[in-house]
Each structure stands twice: as structure tokens, then as C-alpha cells.
Here is the input.
Amino acid sequence: MGDNRRESPPVVCVPRFSKGSGTGHIVRSLRLARRAHDEGRKMLIAVDEGQLVNARKLALLHGVDPCLLFSLEALPHHPVICGEKAPAPLIVADLRASSAEEVAFLDSLGYLVGIDEGGDFRQQFPFLIDLLPKRKQGGKANIGILPSIGEVETKRSSDLPSVLISFGGEDPENLTPLIVRLLIDGAYLQASQIQVIRRSIGEPFALPAGVKQIDPVSDPLPLFRSSDLLISSFGLTAWEAVSCGIAVLLLNPSRYHQLLSTRSGFSSLGWVSGRKGRSRLKTRLRHLFPERQLTWSGISRLHIPHPGDEWSCNRDVESLILSMRPEGGVICPLCGRRLNSVESPVVHRSEERSVRRCSSCGAMVLFDPFPPENRYGEDYFFSEYRSQYGRDYLEDFDHIKTLSVQRLEHITAVIGKTSGPRLLDIGCAYGPFLAAARDAGFFCEGIEITPGAVSYVKERLGIPVYAGSVDDILFDGPLEAMAAHYDVITLWYVVEHLPNLFQVIEGIQRLLRPGGVFAFSTPSFRGMSARRKPDAFFAASPSDHLSIMAPGQVSSWLSRHGFRVDRLVSTGIHSERFPFPFSAFPESLLHSLAARLRLGDTFELYATKQERRHDRPK
Here is the structure.
């Protein structure tokens, strides 16, 4: 198993920042940059070359070092990306709608996470975070976060409602002066009741006297708390106001924004398009507020939407992103190919993980942004094992040893009779298989990363064990120079834990003598559980299972590494998981049929090493 230590990756934000796209995307990145600075994390923001000057000006307004902003074109050559010892960065794309070229480019740089992605390639992102409820648009995200930024204000200091107007840092359609004039000229509001957030990009607004204009702010909480109504367009600001408990009325710049408003259930004045659209605003205002003077009763009639039960209000996106220490999901553990987001689709999403199908070999590959710091401590074999199986590993020792006897029978049948065969068990845990192999006449050794297990096997069982990770032992440790040393190498429920299985297999191939046996067991994504309920299967899969294969894949995969499959045994057959009428079959018949069709939830494989041309001595 691999090393447990993981360095915090640098974060690279890529927001959409161009004329007409507003400033919401880059402002989110600037918020994250401030939090990253407070926590001592490396952080970059990448925008198009032509917008770099404006982006750095905006960074100064938000208290962010403008030196953190770089051009997207120069990003692949930045030391954070291409540094020799730099960990793969977390690429946070906030692009609204990404093209195939953008997805492929960003995915090639590191671990790709999408925020509010609404493009045709939304489901290709390894991990998706939605801040805007999309209502059936483009498939589910891994997690939806509705920012919770305060409590509802219960006591008002004035009899007249206070109205806050904000259409983003750009407001390209000039909706701010339009709605201000209509509200004042129509006698809905007095100028003193209105607060307007200025543009951060573009010319200042020309507004009637008495309307208070304020500079853009990074934290909207105080403004929301002092206001009774927000007038804005569909976006994060509207949802933040909802979570803060104030009423919201939307006026949208496009049909697309209006569609999202309708789907989400906001009260809206519609969308503005040319003179005709603007003239209809007067009619809509009169319909919404027939008494003209905007009163508390009028505001109370506005609909406050609810994002849905699946949305979390107890966390913020900055904390979520900065807690990510991704593992897996970039390189396929089986074939070693880099996963391409456009070609390797996501087949399962949950708050904790994504599962992708490798387009090269077909393996299911886990993308885990939140792995624990130490996976394989003592708890792994005791409290965690007990929670899954009802007893801890040592209490299960004799049962596992009994299963090992059957596995040794398969190994003996494949390898034939040999005198004192040498056996290496990788990931031997507390040694039940090693104990059974020694009883069967094998000379045994093990590899194990958990200190307590290493001590148990050495002291209680008296069997030699190499302590450390597989990589350290095979490639940089005592077995580095050995060749053709072992007759049998086994990995029982270990291969799925290895992030670089394709390299470990080559190490195993080197250590085995010609004709030696390589045996392993692993879960199957073509078993009955995965076939019937794939989402439930992947959700229940342990978080350290970095890859899951199918029996049909292994022959061609192993042949590339110089192995021939001799036996494949379907295991993990549970009659209660089969649908009717199969569940009504006699137990023996069901097991026989399921084994023949390879429908078990796990399988065991026994292969022999074949001599390859480049392995022959010159």
C-alpha cells in the first residue's frame, strides 16, 4: 500500500472574466485567495491575457495581492504547475460554461474541480460543486452549497423598507439606473430608501439625487442585514440574500437568466430585451405592487425559494476547497494512462468522491478529494473493520486462515509440486494467509505498512516481514535488486488500494521466477451488486479502493505485463442480492450459475509468469 503522507496541493482558480460575463466568477476566486492566504496555502488566479490588467485592479479593490494573478496562456509554465517536486495542483474552474478544449487543457494541469459548470461538458468534470441550484440542468453535482451568511433580521429600525440594488460588478445592460428610475418615477420608493452598489468595471452610474451609492464589498453580510429587499439578477448574490432571510426580486439581463429564475422559484420582473422589454417593466411593476408605494405587505408577497433538501447550508465553498487533498483520479492505477476528462466519463458522484471509467482499459478509478491523513493505522484493522464486518481483524483471523487454505489449493494446482516454494504476501496484515502458507510447506515473507501488524507477524507468528509501503520495499528497499527470487507472490484485497498498480505489477514480474504464480483478490464492478444498483455499490465502496476492475478485463491487462491467467474464481456470491427468480433458486444452483457467469461481487485470480523476450539473458 502507498505512503499515507500527502502535501497540501496549491490551488489555481480559473474564473470566467471577459466583457459581458460580469465579475461574480472572479470575485469568488478573490474570496478564496484571501482565505488561502490566511491559511498559508499557495494560490494562483489565471485569466485571459487581455483581461489581466483589469483583473489585477479588481484584486487590489478586494485586498488581494495582484501578483497572484497570471495569464491563462502562461499558466502551464508557472513553477506551481511545472515545478519538479510540486504536487499536482487543484484546478478550480469557475467558467459558467466550459468548452471541450478548456476542459481538456485544465484537466491536463492537475485535479479539476468545476464550480457552477453549466456547459455541455458539465458531467465530464471529475468533481462538481454547485452554488446555484440548477433545477434538472445538466445532471447532478457532487455537492450543492447554498452559502449561509447570517440569521434573519427580526427587528426593523424603520417603517419604510430599505432596498439594496446590485447587478454585479459590470452590469453591462445598465439595469441599475433603469430600475432606480422606474421605482422613483413610479412612486414605489423614495430615493432615500435605495442603496446601490457601484460598478467595479465601467463608467459610474448617473442616478437621481438622494440615492446612496456604495463601493463593491467582498462581504455582503452587513448590507443584507441592513436591507429588507434585494433587487438583482439571477446568481449567487440572490441566493446569498435568500439564505440571509431577506426578500429578493429579480430583473434579468437575458432569457437564460430568466429561465433559471423561473426554475428556482424567484419572484421576477422578467428579462430585458430592447425597448419593448423595458416598456413592459412598468406593467410588471404595477401588477406586482398594485398599491404603488412599496410596503411591507408588498414585500411579504414575494416568493422566497428553497434550494432543495440536498443542499448544504452548513459549510462554505472556500473551506470545502481548501480541505481538499486529492488522491487518485488523474492516472489510471491499472494501465498508467492519464485520464482525459472529455473521454473518461464520471459514472458515480457523491459528496465524498467521484468514480471515472478509464477510456483506455475500462477500469473504474476513484477520485477522492478528502482522503484521511493516515489510512492504515491500527483503527483500520479494529474499529473500522468491526464497523464493516461485526468483529475486528484478529477476531476474524481464523476465518480468514480457513479461506486461505482454499486459495493455497488453487496456487498449488497452478504451480505444481515444488520443493520449499518461496512465497511473498504483499499487504499481509496480521498474517492469516502467511500462517496457512507456512503450514502448507511454503517459505513465507510478507510486506506490511501498519506497525502493529508488522510486530504481530514477526513476534507472534515468527514470520519475516518487510515494514513499509510497497513502493519503498520493491523499488528503493531490500527487494530492489532481487530477480526471479519468489515462486509465489500474493495480494489479497490489496491491488485496489494501490495508486500505481501498473508499476507494482512490473516489480512483481521481476521478483517472480518464470512459471511463478501471481495471485490476488479484488472487488468486481461486474458483480450482481454493481449490476443491479451501481450507485449504491460505488457509494458503499471503501474510500481507499482507488480502482475497481472486472473479471473480463484482467486477461489482456496481465498479458501486457507478461502473465497468463490460469484460474479465475468468482467469489462474494450473496443470494439475497440477486433478483427474483434467481433468488428463489436452490443455494447450490445459484452459486454454480453465478460462478459460471462471474456475477460474484469479488473475484480471485491466479496467473503464471511468462518469459518475455526482453527478460531473456543476452
